[in-house]
Known about the structure:
Layout: E1 11-14, E2 31-36, H1 40-43, H2 46-53, E3 58-62, H3 71-83, E4 88-93, H4 95-107, H5 118-121, E5 133-137, E6 149-154, E7 159-164, E8 172-175, H6 185-203, H7 211-233, H8 238-251, H9 265-277, H10 281-295, H11 301-312, H12 319-336, H13 353-362, H14 376-385
Amino acid sequence: MFNFDLHTTTRILFGKDAISGLRAQIPADARVLVTYGGGSVKKTGVLDQVLNALSGLNVLEFGGIEPNPSYETLMNAVKIAREEKVTFLLAVGGGSVLDGTKFIAAAAQYAEGVDPWEILQTGGSKIQSAIPMGSVLTLPATGSETNMGAVISRKTTGDKQAFMNPHVRPVFAILDPVYTYTLPPRQVANGVVDAFVHTIEQYVTYPVNAKIQDRFAEGILLTLIEEGPKALKEPENYDVRANVMWAATQALNGLIGSGVPQDWATHMLGHELTAMHGLDHAQTLAVILPALWNEKRDTKRAKLLQYAERVWNITEGSEDARIDAAIAATREFFEAMGVPTHLSGYGLDGSTIPALLAKLDEHGMTQIGENQDITLDVSRRIYEAAR
């Protein structure tokens, strides 16, 4: 196991009516900007519950943060935050709203005269401060409610890039599984796939004898496999929704990634598909992961075999046969959730692969993966195999 420094500071208020604890988490003299996406939080009444809980505070609203939050939209909120001297941000929604709010938090206090897009260009390394923020989660998927990372898109340039910085880790997160009952099936499926691949990126690499992290990761994967289909069939099953929500948070709160090698190449290749073609984030992960595993089966062999045995109970046949079966089982799971695993499933024929590779090159993604051995040529083979 590698050395690590783990400091997770987000307070979690989990369960039915957890919103009742919201008011106590925000300073009494705060100037609050509530951020959200489309109209779903209004239709479901979640936004009204939030605003009622904040009664008596100085509260402003900013809506319209889209899936794959755009720099252009977020800069409008940054302007409000600066002009209104906002001192606290509250994100109400899923990972896109949370990611966007993290950018707002950092950009509002970024160096004067510097384009905040530099935050993405430098991976967040130049962030010195940020407006504190909390969240009311309505879509379990990204784990953004407890971590210090975010992914932002820039429509005008076709870029989608990530940043990380401890200053943007949420102070608290309200997690009420009931808020997920009304999610459309597509969002439920995407959330399960997203959390699944987050776990995989920290688990299927190479062994370092980190037994606790491995067992935690396997528990998350098994939970998602068991509960994901149920979440689609039984949308108001509280226990199912609670387990899915908690699994998504645990998948990317820093715990299972501590002391182990991490991959994230599936995400890097997927980001370019989203930026260029508008695919949902989870859809790109479902497309890339099986192809990437087949390409890197030798360097990932030990962990793929462990995954095959412990997650799918695949113990018979040659090593290659077991790996093939594990990849097939993963693909079947994604497909059963309603998420296609080939580019052709989204009407794409692979003709933009050269352009995708050019973007990877532009973003410095020329040696990625846990061994830094996924070059542009390897990425090309992965994209081609994913068609």
